[in-house]
Amino acid sequence: TKIFADRIGRIEVSATMAVTAEAAKLRAQGAKLVDFGAGEPHFATPRHIKDAAIKAIDENFTRYTVVSGIPEVRKAIVERHTADFGSNYTPEEAVFTTGGKLAIFNAIQVLVDHGDEVILPVPYWVSYKDIIQYGGGKVVYLETDEAENFRVTADAIEKAITPRTKAIILNSPSNPTGSVIAPADLERIVKLAHERGIYLLLDECYVYLQYTGALVSGGSFTDAKEHIIVLGSLSKTYAMTGWRAGFALGPKPIIAAMSKLQSQSTSSTAHFVQKAAITALSSSQECVAEMRADYLKLRDRILARLAEIPGITCTKPEGAFYVYPNVSAYLGKPGAKTAMELAGRLLNEAHVVSVPGEAFGTNNHIRLSYAVSHDDVEEGVKRMKDFFAKLS
Ligand code: PLP
């Protein structure tokens, strides 16, 4: 008899797992790795946020809460969003989730039915396709142009829409490329989705890590609110990845359905995490600006160093904390036929952790996270340069 349900067969373990496991093995053997693999801030969670959680635990905020998050945390989410982006959400249009990933998962599960199409730009963050497939949806991949900085355009989206299109997922700034959708294109995409009755799922977990111009959120298009779902996270903004704190903003019935799903799975996030999130969202945002300023310096540093490696080209990220260099000049050689093999050798021979582009739907790249120290950027790219010199 069959053990597993069909739905679990529709997803794979994250493609980054193989590299992570290999890196752990080397580390256990005492290797000093430079880790450009992990997609998380190298900063500690700011002191005032940690203090808020400690205080909350001491005061016994350690029980279940309402599933969608206590009213104060939902208020803090919408007030932060209104202040920063001019949106007009109410607390009933917000749900607090156990990480941004759960917000994405729940939004897709409540919207996407068998056979529904979801448009997903490539390169994509690893989990979207699996989450869509888990829900029975059909992923419609939308290629972007590296020469255009992998930018998603309204024209391309329009061409990909069919009568079966239920939703579009956008991730700006993007993981893995750091690409940001041009404001004019975002406006046109919002209009298009609204007119056609298609849901726009905006994964904005890097929204505060934009380096050019003003910070932009799709949630500020209040006229099209009916079709917009903002998926947010405190993970990257406040260096809180392990706290599991995320949220969604959207139409009341969709938020209610997401809460219903949550009520039969995770229930609420820890009460003291919600308390800490209120502090993060409603106190001074100076820590966010400070971290952003350092990421920008790190970006410029890693781009400058990578440019010194012959044959490697790299688009200039406008946000997030990843670079996505094109390594095709070094591919096809024995032992380095694919980016996957190249990343394996880079790890084993140079002790540099990267994630091969296959994980994000492209074949000629590796992803490097520069949420590391400046010393690690210098050391890691130096090792890469020596490794590639020997390879060529
Ligand atoms: N979306 C993107 C694009 C990400 O890179 C990540 C984390 O790496 C997430 C969502 C999920 O973040 P979290 O679940 O920690 O909020």
Automatic annotation (TrEMBL):
<dbReference type="GO" id="GO:0008483">
    <property type="term" value="F:transaminase activity"/>
</dbReference>
<protein>
    <recommendedName>
        <fullName>Aminotransferase</fullName>
        <ecNumber>2.6.1.-</ecNumber>
    </recommendedName>
</protein>
<dbReference type="GO" id="GO:0006520">
    <property type="term" value="P:amino acid metabolic process"/>
</dbReference>
<dbReference type="InterPro" id="IPR004839">
    <property type="entry name" value="Aminotransferase_I/II_large"/>
</dbReference>
<dbReference type="GO" id="GO:0030170">
    <property type="term" value="F:pyridoxal phosphate binding"/>
</dbReference>
<keyword id="KW-0808">Transferase</keyword>
<feature type="domain" description="Aminotransferase class I/classII large">
    <location>
        <begin position="32"/>
        <end position="383"/>
    </location>
</feature>
<dbReference type="InterPro" id="IPR015422">
    <property type="entry name" value="PyrdxlP-dep_Trfase_small"/>
</dbReference>
<dbReference type="Pfam" id="PF00155">
    <property type="entry name" value="Aminotran_1_2"/>
</dbReference>
<dbReference type="InterPro" id="IPR050596">
    <property type="entry name" value="AspAT/PAT-like"/>
</dbReference>
<keyword id="KW-0663">Pyridoxal phosphate</keyword>
<dbReference type="InterPro" id="IPR015424">
    <property type="entry name" value="PyrdxlP-dep_Trfase"/>
</dbReference>
<dbReference type="InterPro" id="IPR015421">
    <property type="entry name" value="PyrdxlP-dep_Trfase_major"/>
</dbReference>
<comment type="similarity">
    <text>Belongs to the class-I pyridoxal-phosphate-dependent aminotransferase family.</text>
</comment>
<keyword id="KW-0032">Aminotransferase</keyword>
<dbReference type="InterPro" id="IPR004838">
    <property type="entry name" value="NHTrfase_class1_PyrdxlP-BS"/>
</dbReference>
